[in-house]
């Protein structure tokens, strides 16, 4: 799976029928940095890991926060984004630079759109098996995250159900690792065909529709590690620390008894 960013970019330039230059881009559209309460990676570490793993760009989706500054590179794209905690679940705001102050779902969608961003429902079935629970909000959304490397840990059908939701409502799709620790970066990949490696071109390509999404399921111990980071950052009390240790044992047992199922490729 690993490939250099330069090699990926070299292969990314394809000839369209009309002689236009089209780039095939590989993007992880859901990563958390150390600015999240449960994240530990610096932005420079994320970029370096993504390059090593053959990605052309990433979206930094910290919990209820945005980047203070968005770095720019000639051969790599950092997409400013956020993950908003709402009463209807987590909502990705892609291509946003200002904080989303509200935690109300519909108000968050409006605020994302006001910045010219895309509102994408994140891991919609990670904690629910109700296939119809989002029917009343789907018309307002720009896309559905149909591959999240952490989502299937609790609901084994979470990603499959998200894909069915996107197909039902004919919505564009995304994939992301939901990485909180280095091991996870690149575990969810959105493959796009874009005119160039720029924010505007990638946004347009997402709205046209991804070529495919790819990924691998993450290990439960990665979740345990990010929860440990959260406890440390929030100065958790004794009870939370004890519960955290029990959770870590549970995650270790889950990884021990779960067979790895390789790399998944899903057509849109």
Contiguous runs where pLDDT drops below 50 for at least 5 residues: none
- Helicity level: 25-40%
DSSP summary, beta strand count: 11
CATH architecture of the largest domain: Alpha-Beta Barrel
Main beta sheet, described? Answer: 11 strands, mixed
Strand content: 15-25%
Distance between the termini: 20 Å
Count every helix, treating DSSP H or I runs of 4 or more residues as helices.
7
CATH class of the largest domain: Alpha Beta
Description:
The protein has 2 domains: 5-219 and 261-267, Metal-dependent hydrolases (TIM Barrel); 222-257, no CATH class. It is 31% helix and 24% strand. It has helices at 5-12, 43-52, 105-114, 158-169, 199-208, 220-233, 238-257; strands spanning 13-15, 21-31, 57-60, 77-86, 89-94, 118-121, 143-148, 173-176, 188-194, 212-215, 264-267. Strands 1, 2, 3, 4, 5, 6, 7, 8, 9, 10 and 11 form an 11-stranded mixed sheet that branches. The radius of gyration is 18 Å and the shape is globular. The mean pLDDT is 93.
